[in-house]
Design brief:
352 residues; alpha/beta; Rossmann fold; Zinc Finger, Delta Prime, domain 3; 2 domains; five-stranded parallel β-sheet
Length: 352
């Protein structure tokens, strides 16, 4: 992959390209930005361009020479990649890297050390790394990748050149999902809209939440006002058995409420801004049946439960309170998506 194929990071890439073309690459870079926006990919692409044996132009890679192929297949002898072992990156990993740096580059070009999730260095590993940052070997470049720079030692931060990576637009993420994973445009746009600017998050969501499950979960939400207290308790008991599914469910409910607010505020002109863009007619009908105050209350209720669950609150109790409050705050009637309520719940929760 060349620099031109990395979407959404034009500013950061322009800085690196200019430094490479002018022979001014820093010895150590700190790549800062959300998870899954191309930091690691940019580091590998820079290493590939700096070692390419037949560059089509300065600062580019041919993708065909032995060096480019080795970088692409993670087999380049002069590319050292470190990741946390378990929860942390240990001093032994830094020591092993330093031993390798005592020798000249094996393939005669530039050498790169890529420390992924570098904010998870132990204190001992951080102090050991400082020695390399203070006196880096010739033709060696370090790339510290992190989404949480505040967790790194100030002495490490001060010895790196910072480069910020921004969240990707939903359009860029959708393009990547279509090209890399073969998703159709409608699905790619939906997952991209949920991803918070991260390709990695979009990919994870596409593996966990399919279109059918989304419709099923929205159906559960839409029928809450008609449920008895006993039915809600039974539903919450089944739901509480799967933590990850609950988080996905709550996030989809928040997005549904968000779409209702958007439509209620802007009307038909908002159709292109809906995340559930394929359910525009359902959004239009449902939005008419709730006030903005009701929707605002439901949105904050869901957010509060998400925060409580993040603090290890009792899942079943939290869900019971949430659903009873939604029933009270919700509209008197709801749009029923094209499934019978009981059949949907049986399908959604049958594995429990």
């Amino acid at each position: 992959m060349s620099f031109d194929q990395i979407l959404g990071q034009e500013k950061a890439i322009a800085v690196l390209r200019n430094a490479l073309r002018n022979g001014r690459l820093a010895h150590a870079y700190l790549f800062i930005g959300p998870e899954g926006v191309g930091k690691r990919l940019t580091a590998l692409t820079l290493v590939k361009a700096s070692n390419c044996q037949s560059p089509p132009e300065p600062g580019e890679s041919c993708e065909k020479c032995p060096s480019c192929i080795k970088v692409n297949t993670f087999n380049h002898a002069d590319v050292i990649r470190l990741e946390p072992e378990g929860e942390v990156m240990k001093i032994g990993q830094i020591r092993d890297m330093q031993k390798r740096l005592h020798f000249r580059p094996m393939e005669g070009g530039r050498r790169a050390c890529i420390l992924d999730s570098s904010d998870r260095l132990t204190d001992e590993a951080s102090n050991a790394l400082l020695k390399t940052l203070e006196e880096p070997p010739p033709e060696t470049h370090l790339f510290l990748i992190t989404s949480r720079p505040h967790r790194l030692l100030p002495t490490i931060l001060s010895r790196c050149q910072w480069l910020k990576f921004k969240p990707l637009s939903a359009g860029h993420i959708a393009q990547i999902l279509q090209k890399a994973h073969g998703l159709d445009p409608e699905k790619a746009q939906f997952y991209a809209s949920l991803a918070g600017g991260s390709v990695g998050q979009a990919e994870a969501l596409s593996n966990r939440v399919d279109f059918q499950k989304r419709l099923d979960w929205l159906q559960v939400f839409s029928t809450l006002p008609q449920k008895t207290t006993e039915e809600i308790f039974e539903l919450c008991e089944r739901m509480a058995k799967e933590e990850e599914e609950i988080q996905d469910l709550l996030e989809l409910w928040k997005i549904w409420v968000r779409d209702l607010v958007v439509f209620k505020t802007a009307g038909e002109a908002s159709m292109k801004q809906l995340i559930n863009h394929d359910l525009g007619s359902e959004v239009a009908q449902e939005a008419k049946k709730s006030s903005l105050d009701q929707l605002d209350g439901i949105f904050h209720l869901i957010s509060e439960v998400q925060n409580s669950l993040a603090l290890n609150a009792n899942r079943q109790l939290a869900l019971e309170v949430l659903m009873l409050e939604i029933r009270k705050e919700g509209s008197k009637s709801s749009v029923v998506l094209p499934y019978e309520s009981a059949a949907v719940e049986e399908k959604v929760f049958s594995k429990y």
